[in-house]
Queue: 2 jobs
Job 1
Amino acid sequence: MENISQLIAKDLLKIKAVFFRPEEPFTWASGIKSPVYCDNRLTLTAPEVRNDVENALAETIRREYPDAEVLMGTSTAGIAHAAITGHIMGLPMGYVRSGNKDHGRQNQIEGRLEKGQKVVVVEDLISTGGSVIEVVNVLREAGAEVLGVVSIFTYGMQKGLDRLAAADVKNVSLTNFDIIAQVAADEKYIKPEDIARLIAFRNDPSDESWIGGNK
């Protein structure tokens, strides 16, 4: 029986929200060469996939964070997912800006949040963990009790795992890099021998020895 992680992996690959190209790596802004491109915003324009994702987020929050009182999306990618999932669950939602507004009330947290409320942060993608930890810190400083994070996809990079652990932040993702790589091979998006190259990239993105590894 197909589990949620495999279903979401298939969905993301089908709409190219996650796209593997080990033979023609993408270049990140940092200059690092990457065999994978990820844009989970594409889930919003694919209704069937969107339905799978939002229902899976709701199920995950009910299971992992049953005491959740408020959902807070990360800006900007997590906002729509927090809104839709909040609607499914009948929970209030808001979002956290990357910085304070420069006008009006100069809010960084948008939406009503009372001190002591139990919050789950909704994020689309976890890589090194820096941006979501900033969101958690803003919410904690505002007096919220952050139960943890729920995300669609995580690379599982060691730097991200270490950062989340150091900040005492729990994250539960619908699927992860290892599962998507295996599903991509099973579905013939990539060759089976590419899996080792992809995992080598994930384990150390700065080491480009995986490039051309099968030649």
Job 2
Amino acid sequence: MNQIVLMALAATIGTWSVTALGAAMVVFFKSPHNKMLNLMLGFASGVMIAASFWSLLQPAIARAEASSSIPAYFVATIGFLSGAAFMWLSDKIVFYARGGADSTQGRPDEKMNRIIMLILSITLHNIPEGLAVGVAFGALGDHFTPERLMGAITIAVGIGLQNFPEGAAVSIPLRREGFSRMKSFLLGQASGIVEPISGAAGAFLVVYVESILPYALSFAAGAMILVAVHELIPECQKNRNTQPYGATMGIITGFAVMMLLDVMLG
């Protein structure tokens, strides 16, 4: 069982490494290429939406039907809404920690406060992303098969893809504000450090408290859907007038790739 937790830790260290790779873009570019960034964000959101069903919700419903006395649809719904509520509450905490939307209007440090907000938001978003990977590996439990292992790996890969633009989204604004390349990189990659922690915690809880597995899987799905729909999709559609279908095709491609992997690999 401890091996499962170590595998989850290794996978989330990998997703953290991709965050660092994205943050390293600050060494080479002052600003990212908007078209490529939008495509990557769209692809990541498509991956997350597909993974939320085939890798998280569908297994949650199956496990609830097999082991829970509570109706499976109720378990999945409660877990899903709890995950979305967790992300919503995380954003609210950051919002009120800054004193509300109007607290920085007209002040010289307004830009820096927005950057702090960005760092905190991405860091908070990385918590359920790490949990999603940890839960996926923890779900292997006593039913370890190469196919299920590959399913957990695809979730980690999908979240890693999403982390690349997030790392750049932190480090590049810091560079624009006058931070050194090294400091911008270090702060950018630090936003992903919570993923190995939350990943190991998620796997540990699922392995040793198996009854929470259906709830944990659907919780992670709700968190991922909210991040994809509320954050990633609007962000990648910002240049829709000049690139009508660029990001949209990224979403479609990401969904199709993740669906193909999940269904093909079982």
